[in-house]
C-alpha cells in the first residue's frame, strides 16, 4: 500500500517526502560553524540561494570575532553569531554553541573550517547531523594543514573528504570524496587552492545527500538507497 504524508490538504507519497523540503512540513535549517575565511560556507550559501540545496541557513556561528566568514554571513543578511572560545572552558563553550543551534531550530550542522574539536557531549546532541569537510583523502592526513602534509609526503593524488562527525578527529563515516592530482609543478599553496575548488563542490553534494535521507550506512559505508 502507498504510504502518504499529509501536507496542506495534499497527499504526498512517502517516497517524495525525504528529498523535497516543502513536502516535509517545513524547510530544513542548516547551522554553519566556522573559524576563518568561510569560503566553504559561501559556496553552501550560494547553492542555497540558487535553490540547489533544499534548505535555509538559520544561523552562522564563529568562535572568533575576526573570522571573515562571519562578515560575509552578515552581508548576506543571515543570523551571524560570535561565541568566543578563547579562555572559555570547552564544555561551557560547547554548551553555548549547542544552545544557539537549538534556539535556531537547526536540523543539520556544517563545520566549515571550524578549528575546534567538538566534545563527545556536543556530538551526541546531534547524532548523524553534523558534517565536516577536510582537505585530504581521509583517513590519510587528518589534523592541521592536511594539504601541506600530503604535499610534503609526496603523494601523487590528494583531495577532500566530507564526513559525518563522530567523537574522534576527522574520523566519522565518509559521505563524499573528490580526488585532486598533485602536479609536478605544484607547491602546497597551488595544491590547496585546487583542493579548495573541489571542497566547494563536494560539501553541497554531501549536504544534499544527507538532507535527502536517501542513504544508509553499512558498517562505515554511506551508500545510496533507491528513491
Ligand atoms: C578548508 O580547506 C577546510 O577543508 C579546512 O579548513 C579550510 C577552511 O576554509 N578544514 C580543516 O582543515 C578541518 N580539519 P574556508 O574557511 O575558506 O572554508
TrEMBL record:
Binding site for (6R)-10-formyltetrahydrofolate: 90, 115-118, 132
A Pfam family it matches: Formyl_trans_N
InterPro entries per the UniProt record, alphabetical: Formyl_transf_N, Formyl_transf_N_sf, GART, GART_AS
Recorded superkingdom: Bacteria
Classification via Gene3D superfamilies: Formyl transferase, N-terminal domain (3.40.50.170)
Keyword tags: Purine biosynthesis, Transferase
BP term (GO), one: 'de novo' IMP biosynthetic process
Enzyme class: transferase
EC number, as in UniProt: 2.1.2.2
Catalytic reaction annotation: N(1)-(5-phospho-beta-D-ribosyl)glycinamide + (6R)-10-formyltetrahydrofolate = N(2)-formyl-N(1)-(5-phospho-beta-D-ribosyl)glycinamide + (6S)-5,6,7,8-tetrahydrofolate + H(+)
Pathway(s) this gene product operates in, as recorded in its UniProt entry: Purine metabolism; IMP biosynthesis via de novo pathway; N(2)-formyl-N(1)-(5-phospho-D-ribosyl)glycinamide from N(1)-(5-phospho-D-ribosyl)glycinamide (10-formyl THF route): step 1/1
Formyl transferase N-terminal domain span: 32-207
Binding residue positions for N(1)-(5-phospho-beta-D-ribosyl)glycinamide: 38-40
MF GO annotations: phosphoribosylglycinamide formyltransferase activity
UniProt-listed CDD domains: FMT_core_GART
PANTHER family named among the record's database cross-references: PHOSPHORIBOSYLGLYCINAMIDE FORMYLTRANSFERASE
Known role: Catalyzes the transfer of a formyl group from 10-formyltetrahydrofolate to 5-phospho-ribosyl-glycinamide (GAR), producing 5-phospho-ribosyl-N-formylglycinamide (FGAR) and tetrahydrofolate.
Annotated family: Belongs to the GART family.
Name used for this protein in its record: Phosphoribosylglycinamide formyltransferase
Native organism: Koribacter versatilis (strain Ellin345)
Gene symbol of the encoding locus: purN
Amino acid at each position: 500500500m502507498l504510504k502518504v504524508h499529509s501536507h496542506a490538504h495534499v497527499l504526498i507519497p512517502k517516497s517524495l517526502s525525504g528529498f523535497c523540503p516543502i513536502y516535509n512540513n517545513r524547510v530544513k535549517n542548516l547551522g554553519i560553524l566556522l573559524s576563518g575565511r568561510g569560503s566553504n560556507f559561501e559556496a553552501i550559501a550560494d547553492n542555497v540561494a540558487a535553490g540547489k540545496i533544499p534548505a535555509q541557513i538559520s544561523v552562522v556561528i564563529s568562535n572568533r570575532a575576526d573570522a571573515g566568514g562571519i562578515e560575509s554571513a552578515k552581508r548576506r543578511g543571515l543570523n551571524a553569531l560570535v561565541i568566543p572560545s578563547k579562555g572559555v572552558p570547552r564544555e561551557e563553550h560547547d554548551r553555548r554553541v549547542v544552545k544557539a543551534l537549538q534556539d535556531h531550530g537547526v536540523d543539520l550542522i556544517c563545520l566549515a573550517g571550524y578549528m575546534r574539536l567538538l566534545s563527545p557531549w556536543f556530538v551526541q546532541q546531534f547524532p548523524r547531523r553534523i558534517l565536516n569537510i577536510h582537505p585530504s583523502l581521509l583517513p590519510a592526513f587528518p589534523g592541521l594543514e592536511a594539504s601541506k602534509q600530503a604535499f610534503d609526503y609526496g603523494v601523487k593524488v590528494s583531495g577532500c573528504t566530507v564526513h559525518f562527525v563522530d567523537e574522534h578527529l576527522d574520523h566519522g563515516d565518509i559521505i563524499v570524496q573528490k580526488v585532486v592530482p598533485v602536479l609536478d609543478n605544484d607547491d602546497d599553496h597551488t595544491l590547496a587552492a585546487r583542493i579548495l575548488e573541489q571542497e566547494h563542490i563536494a560539501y553541497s553534494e554531501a549536504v544534499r545527500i544527507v538532507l535527502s535521507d536517501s542513504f544508509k550506512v553499512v558498517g562505515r559505508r554511506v551508500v545510496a538507497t533507491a528513491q
